[in-house]
Design brief:
Length: about 30
């Protein structure tokens, strides 16, 4: 399982769209 860490400060409002894309790909996203 691939783990991707996302920095909310860098991505801002785009985080929701990014999470949706990862969920479609079946990638687990770990929150910082």
């Amino acid at each position: 399982m691939q783990i991707i860490r996302i920095d909310y400060k860098d991505n801002g409002e785009g985080i929701a769209d990014i999470l949706k894309k990862f969920k479609k790909q079946g990638i687990y996203v770990s929150e910082i």
